[in-house]
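Input (Pyrophosphate--fructose 6-phosphate 1-phosphotransferase):
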Amino acid sequence: MSKNVLYAQAGGITAVINASAAAVLETAQSHPERFGTVYAAINGIVGVLEERLVDMSQLDASQIKQLKTHPGAAFEACRFDLDPLEDNPEQYERVLTVFKHYDIGYFFYNGGNGSMVTAQKVADYCTSQGHPVTCIGVAKTIDNDLDISHCSPGFGSAAKFIASSLLEVNMDLKSMHNTSTKFLAFESMGRNTGWLTIAGGLIKNAIPDIPLLILPAERAFNKQKFLARVQQLFDEKGYCLCVVSEGLQDEQGNYVSITNIEHTHLQDYTQLGGVADALSHMVAQEMGVKTHSITPDYLQRSASHFVSKTDWQMAYDAGKSAVIAAMNGEHGVLPIIEVTSESPFSWRFTNVDLMTVADLEKTVPDHFLTPDGMDITQAALDYLTPLIQGEMPFTYVNGLPDIRLFDFSLLPQQLAPYKIVK
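Output:
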């Protein structure tokens, strides 16, 4: 007998996360003998707890087409982790109640490392209580920190946006540096990993001798060496462009810049940001030149008009592969990307244990960075370049991207209200 499906989105979004959502829906609907109604939780696991569900099966062809290129998380992702079972069993009991009521037999959680832990907890608990749920992860993250996988769906589009923006900014900086700004810092996302930072180095494919500094999170920041390199580029080229990880730390392990610390009942979350501004002020004070900083922040992960076609296909394939894994009797796995050919670039998805990948974090390897830690090697360019290839068709209305809000109708709540303690 067919069982119903529940799909949810978690963590920071990507420009292609909704392609994965569309793939889950389309693939499940093409196998009605196995899958029943396809639901989506609004706001990830929070929506499950609060019984905020929509019936994805009601989307028509035009809405599914819109979903495939829609920015943001169409079903509203969340940053919320379930408490340990021993601390808050009521959370798990509530999830089980919702799953039983809606006859959920398949749970697809679209997220990164932390989300995979949540997905596994849910599946394990429901199964232990006599309601087996097939749980499959759907990979995504712009940080590219999902280990074992060749790359993470979502990273290629963010990398394409960052490199393209830097290429254009460089032309502005070069044209003005003689009488205006000489140093510009561009801040990329990435708490512990510098993948988006080294993506800025893709502009070397267009301008090999560009005066560029790359400061990834994997290397400790040394103020004296940094300033000496900036001065060297000033002397050689007249200006310097710098791309830096928001998670840059000094040699004592302290973040160079922190925006805020959010306190919850379980732990504190450090919000990073401002490192580009900090470096910009440093150069201005030490060298007496005009500087500038750019923090693209959400822009780098939501630019649906600038998606890599390769990345979009990976995101769609991630959702499709998750449903196929469920059909093949897999449980507690995450389909990840395995490269099958370097030229032409091709890949396939293979399944790994959810908890295995959840415990790992892929950082930029040493051989992708030069010995001084402030530039990338050819090996890094060889890895990055295939991920940004191709462009997706995109339509405009009245001069703006054709982006409209989805107006989902929530299913009437049938269970007792549930209040989350954050």
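The chain has a mean pLDDT of 93.
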